[in-house]
Design brief:
- There is one protein chain.
- The protein is of the alpha/beta class.
- Helix content is 35%, strand content 14%.
- The chain contains 10 helices and 7 strands.
- A 7-stranded mixed β-sheet has the order 2-1-3-4-5-6-7, with helices on both faces.
- Helix 5 links the parallel strand 4 and strand 5.
- Helix 3 crosses helix 4 and helix 9 crosses helix 10.
């Protein structure tokens, strides 16, 4: 993080110091990834991860590493704005990150182990909105996963683009939503960002739409770095928790986000029939604890290409 925009010359900032404090309790903990692991002689589907507003590329390292371990080439870059390191809540800011997504897809095509006929994009929060913009213009993207993405909260930006038309997009979308987003919260967001516009999810009719409501998760819990941030949990997140769900419940919920994301990608990018069956099943049949999530599958009105057609 200290060198990502300074060409190797470390730059110390307040945000880096704050992040270091947040992650102090995780110092020394290893992920499952192995540096310089030997290359396999195969070609794999590509997943581009788009982080949230002004966030680091590795905010969801656990999810990205999990997918990589099951045969995906995963790439990510920081969330930045058009003319600054910070993102901006406007069309220019969305477009900047959307272009980064397409840039990473092009870069993936230079790698020896990628199958460029099978490309998906995953985004958290603002990254979900950026991925929508990218997919509307970049036909290489064959599937989308949105982790409580901003396309649901800022549909006015989609409308204002004049070029992004969810009702015309025919790729499958898996959308995870937090458990307690209210009409009042949505109204406050609309007032703040002048974001009035038709619902992106309601317009998604030409591509399969799978919507999963994580009943005990609130927005930051779709990002794995939140679970490694003891200070955040001790002082800030408890005031946002839903009902009596706690951090342990959040970890269970996040693990299910990972499992269902993998099943979705396996189904649509790898034509895995077992994964398609997993997606169609009632949550209890997949060993999901009660009161954890609900799932709704809306089939495309254009073509039969989703899990229930297999």
């Amino acid at each position: 993080m200290a060198t990502q925009v300074s060409f190797g010359a470390p730059q110390k900032t307040r945000d880096q110091d704050l992040l270091k404090t947040w992650l102090q309790s995780s110092a020394g903990q290893s992920l499952f990834a192995v540096r310089d692991a030997p290359m396999q002689e195969e070609r794999y589907p590509v997943v581009v991860y788009a982080p949230s507003f002004s966030s680091m590329a590795w905010e969801n390292a656990d999810l990205c590493g999990y997918l990589a371990s099951y045969g995906y080439v995963v790439l990510a870059s920081p969330g930045m704005g058009e003319k600054s390191v910070e993102s901006t809540h406007d069309l220019a800011g969305v477009d900047a990150q959307a272009r980064d997504v397409s840039f990473l897809i092009t870069y993936a095509g230079t790698l020896p182990d990628t199958d460029m006929t099978r490309v998906a994009a995953i985004g958290f929060s603002w990254g979900g909105l950026s991925n929508l913009f990218a997919a509307s213009r970049d036909k290489r993207i064959k599937a989308l996963v949105s982790l409580d993405g901003s396309e649901r909260y800022f549909p006015g930006l989609v409308k204002a683009s004049g070029t992004v038309h969810p009702d015309q997009m025919s790729i499958p979308l898996l959308y995870f939503e937090e458990g307690n987003q209210s009409l009042e919260d949505q109204d406050r967001l609309n007032s703040r960002f002048h974001a009035d516009g038709p619902s992106v999810l309601n317009q998604w009719v030409r591509g399969d739409l799978i919507t999963i409501r994580m009943l005990g998760l609130f927005h930051p819990e779709f990002c794995s770095i939140a679970y490694r941030n003891a200070e955040l949990w001790d002082h800030e997140l408890p005031n946002q928790q839903i009902a009596d769900y706690d951090r342990a419940d959040g970890l269970v919920g996040y693990s299910l986000v990972m499992r269902y994301t993998k099943a979705f990608l396996d189904s649509y990018l790898k034509s895995d029939t077992a994964a398609a069956t997993f997606l169609k099943a009632q949550p209890g049949m997949n060993a999901v604890p009660r009161h954890t999530m609900s799932i709704k599958i809306k089939r495309s009105t254009a073509v039969d290409n989703g899990p229930s057609s297999r």
